[in-house]
Backbone:
């Protein structure tokens, strides 16, 4: 295995920028997830690492070697595609061993490595089957196996679970996590699914519009988002983001008719540094808690209740502001009910409205 270094990599298509000087490192044995919406440049970056696209500028290093001038076959990476890309006329065993045959590996060694990989992925009973005889999950295991059998320095995954149904995606996430633990391999994984990113990644690189928004562990990304994009993109339901302004005294945050004591969030001394500034207040739905009226941070009327069984998403409107409360399925709410809600200072965020950067990240 090997480390991966992306150094100021940029890419443009017909003078339209797709990536703008992306830089980050993936340690040897690390599972790194590229997370972002469609069109943010994450698959393009993956293809540049694989050698399927050329960067407009910048460098890619695998271990100590600079590889941007090497063809894909010489980079020693394995690419797992979204659409499986299995050869329909070949059996599972032939699909698994095809890349080894191309590299001139002797037949006995091919047989041994195919059998070992099939046992690892629990598809050894399917070696004589062809792809059309397999379920979606089985096909995905074969696609994974075709990468594993090569024993590459780095594994590259381009949304490999997106074609599976929700139940199978959940089980395959678990299998991928176990596989990484067993192999100790360096993996770079592209997805737009935050659940995949949070459950699989040792580190997450959040991309938007060709730029890195934040790099960190899943806990850092979720609890200390660098800006409003990360705060809104990661989390389900998304973080409540309320635009407002701080009064001249630096004591209160106001949004429409909503007035919040800013000193409860950052303390009196720090609150004064935000005097007259336009800010965005962020509160995760699960951090809003019902309370007595005199302890409330916000008040509102229940407008809609989404009952998901284990969770309830309670949509609330009050003081000209809409927000969502996430509660356990055991708590009961009624539409039209008036609620008083609070949140601890450690769970509140302040973002600058101009830069959208987090000014007071929660602890």
Residues:
């Amino acid at each position: 295995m090997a480390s991966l270094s992306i150094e100021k990599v940029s890419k443009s298509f017909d003078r339209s920028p797709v990536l703008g000087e992306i830089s980050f490192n993936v340690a040897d044995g690390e599972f790194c997830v590229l997370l972002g919406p469609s069109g943010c440049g994450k698959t393009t970056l993956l293809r540049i690492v694989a050698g399927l696209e050329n960067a407009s500028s910048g460098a890619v290093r695998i271990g100590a070697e600079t590889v941007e001038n090497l063809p894909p076959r010489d980079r020693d990476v394995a690419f797992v595609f979204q659409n499986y890309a299995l050869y329909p006329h070949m059996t599972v065993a032939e699909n698994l061993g095809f890349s080894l045959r191309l590299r001139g590996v002797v037949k006995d060694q091919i047989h041994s490595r195919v059998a070992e990989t099939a046992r690892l992925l629990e598809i050894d009973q399917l070696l004589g089957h062809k792809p059309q005889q397999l379920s979606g999950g089985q096909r995905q295991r074969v696609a994974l196996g075709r990468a594993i059998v090569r024993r590459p320095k780095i594994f590259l995954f381009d949304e490999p679970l997106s074609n599976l149904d929700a139940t199978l995606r959940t089980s395959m996430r678990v299998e991928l996590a176990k596989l990484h633990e067993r192999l100790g391999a360096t993996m770079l994984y592209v997805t737009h699914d935050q659940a995949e990113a949070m459950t699989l990644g040792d580190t997450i690189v959040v991309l938007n519009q060709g730029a890195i928004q934040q790099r960190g562990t899943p806990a850092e990304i979720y609890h200390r988002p660098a800006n409003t994009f990360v705060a809104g993109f990661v989390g389900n339901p998304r973080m409540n983001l309320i635009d407002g302004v701080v009064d001249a005294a630096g004591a209160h945050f106001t949004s429409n008719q909503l007035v919040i004591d800013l000193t409860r969030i950052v303390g009196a001394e720090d609150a004064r540094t935000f005097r007259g500034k336009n800010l965005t207040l962020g509160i995760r739905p699960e951090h809003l808690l019902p309370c007595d009226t005199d302890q409330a941070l916000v008040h509102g009327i229940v407008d809609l209740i989404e009952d998901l069984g284990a969770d309830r998403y309670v949509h609330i409107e009050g003081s000209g502001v809409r927000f969502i409360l996430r509660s356990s399925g055991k708590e009961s709410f009624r539409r039209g009910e008036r609620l008083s809600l609070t949140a601890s200072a450690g769970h509140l965020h302040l973002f600058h409205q101009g830069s959208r950067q987090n000014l007071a990240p929660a602890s």
About this structure: Residues 166-183 form the longest helix (18 residues).
